[in-house]
Design a protein that fits this description.
- It is a single chain.
- The protein has 98 residues and is an all-alpha fold.
- The protein has a domain of 63 residues.
- Helix content is 58%, strand content 0%.
- The termini are far apart.
Length: 98
């Protein structure tokens, strides 16, 4: 049964390959095969990272963050957690119109 390749599984396999090559126990032919497999895994990971980067650009998160930041013209920003919020003055019975 073939397991679906994910970024995480590719990185895990790369770690295994690096450990095997670092051990010095791999024979010449095995070293060549491992390097070829590592190259394919690196290309796969690079493509996955590129796809995620493109997805983030499409979401335009940078533009959203900038639109929420206070502008130089004095525009209000959405307060973050822990930001003090001004309370409205108390309402008295004289302020109620009915």
């Amino acid at each position: 049964m073939s397991e679906e390749k994910t970024y995480e599984s590719a990185v895990e396999r790369l770690d295994e390959i690096i450990s095997r090559l670092d051990s010095g126990d791999a024979q010449l032919r095995e070293t060549l095969d491992l390097c070829g497999e590592a190259k394919q895994l690196i290309e796969f990971c690079a493509a996955e990272l590129s796809a995620v980067d493109q997805g983030l650009k499409e979401l335009k998160l940078d533009e959203l963050a900038q639109s929420l930041a206070p502008s130089a013209s004095g525009g209000a920003a959405i307060p973050g957690p822990g930001t003090p919020v001004e309370e409205a003055p108390p309402v008295s019975d004289d302020d109620v119109p009915f």
